[in-house]
Structures are given as structure tokens and as C-alpha cells.
Amino acid sequence: ASIGMGLGSLVIGLGMKTLAFIVFNWIYHNYGIWKDMNQHWWVWILLLFADDFTFYWHHRLSHSMRILWAAHVNHHSSIHMNFSTALRQSWVEVLYKYVWWLWLPLVGFHPVFIMTMMAFSLIYQFLQHTELVGKLGPLEWVLNTPSHHRVHHATQVKYLDRNHAGILIIWDRIFGTFQEEKNEDLPVYGITNNISTYNLFKIASHEYISLWRDVKRAPTFKDKFNYLFQPPGWSHDGELKTSNHLRRLEKSALEKDHLNIKTN
Questions:
Q1: 47 and 105 part of one domain
Q2: 12 lies in a domain?
Q3: Which of 119, 126, 223, 263 is 20 to 30 A (C-alpha) from 132?
């Protein structure tokens, strides 16, 4: 199923990548601001940070807005952590993901450079989908590693919506979404409500169907809007199951248990 999802994403993605390159090229040649920087070697360093920063926010928003999560959830629906999971990509996300990168040719990064860096990032991220590599010492402070990405794919409450980095884990550390992998709580992979199917179309559409049902039953326009743009787990009836709410409940329960132990 993961390979099938990957092949579908590849076919759709080739067309979108071509269109994105054409748009990037048009923006660059007509509105690019600092084109001269492409003559210098250090442009690659700047582009690495710019591309990875963009990926971080694209990825984080894909976990923070349900309409985007409906596409991205496909990548998380495998209960395994291996290279085939890396291939398990959305057929929908590739239709709009390049929008987040439109600012790069406007700044003046050459479209060929942008596409090259995006490809490098994709290869790097592919290699993070493994349980065969342990922690990598000091590199864990700066780089996204297999350990960090195992956390990202885990279903335990403390691991939910953490470690969105592509290459540099510094963004998660800066913006408060970092979580270390704990040996006493090894990741359990998948999504909070796993789907048991190898049907590619069900894998690709199951969250859209669930979202549509929630939007239909929402009593007000505001509630319908919130189902689309609030985080996964939001509910108009107050039964919140967002990752942040679940973390607060877990923290409260732990504090209560700790207080009871001290009292007794």
C-alpha cells in the first residue's frame, strides 16, 4: 500500500513539479530581488536554511489544520517505520505544497537551485524513516535524525505533532515543537485511529470522508469553518481530542497522581 501511494504521488507530482518550476521561473525572472547572490557559493547555505524553514512551517501547518491534515495523514497511517513508509505520500498534498515555496524565487533564489535543494531535502528525509539507526550524539542537537523522526510518527500523546523538521531540528527547538525519543517509551507508529485497509483510495480519502461528515453535522457556519481549520481532534461539542488538549489532560493526571502519592 505504501509503495502504491508513493507511485500515485510520483505520477501526480511530476506534473505539479513541472508547473511549479514554470511559475518559479516566471516569478524569478520578473520579480526576483537579489538574483546576484546566485553567483556565490554561500547561496547554497542560505537556501538550505530558507528551504528547510519553509518545509518546517508547511509540515507543521499540515498537522495544525484539519483540511491539510486530511491530505498529510496518508503518510502517517502506516504502523511501520521503514523506507516504504517514506514512500507513502499523499496524492493531494503534491497539488498545493509548492505554494509555500513561492517566496523563494521572489527573494531571488534561482528556480533550478530551489528544485535541487528540495530534492536533496526529500532524499535526506527518506533516510530518516528507519528503526535501524540509534541516537547520533551531538548531531541530535542540530539535525533531524531517525530518532527525532520516529517521535514524529509515534501515536503516544507526548509525541503527537512533534519534530516537524526536514533537515534541521533547530526549528522545532526554536518554535517549541521538539520532543526527544525516550527509551522507556518507545514510539508506537500509526495514527490515533488506525485504518486497517490496503485499498489505496480508502487510504487517500478516509480523512476527507470523516471531515465531510463532521462539517455536515456542525450546527453553525463557525463550527463548520472550525472543523476545516482547527487542529485534528477539534469538536464543536467540547469533546476536544487535539494533541495539545490531550497533553494537558495527561499532565493534569500525572500531577494528580503525584499529589496523591505525596499525600499518602
A1: yes
A2: yes
A3: 119
> Which cell numbers hold the place of 251?
499532565
Which residue range is the domain that position 104 belongs to? 2-175
Same domain, 57 and 109: yes
Q: Are residues 146 and 259 in the same domain?
A: no
> How far, in Å, CA of 73 to CA of 50, rounded?
25
- C-alpha dihedral sign at 222, 224, 230, 236: positive
pLDDT score, position 262? 63
The number of helix segments (H) and strand segments (E) in the chain equals 11, 0
Give me the count of residues in the chain.
Answer: 264
Grid coordinates given for 32: 526576483
Tell me the C-alpha distance between 88 and 6, whole Å.
5
Reported as a pLDDT band with limits 50, 70 and 90, residue 126 is very high
Count of the separate structural domains present in the chain? 2
Calpha distance 27→35 (Å, rounded): 12
The pLDDT score that the predictor gives to residue 90 is 84
- Whether the CB-CB separation of 102 and 23 falls below 8 Å is answered with yes
Do 223 and 164 belong together in one domain? Answer: no
Q: For 159-187, what is each residue's pLDDT tens digit?
A: 999 999 999 999 999 999 999 999 999 99
Contact status, residue 2 vs residue 84, Cβ threshold 8 Å: yes
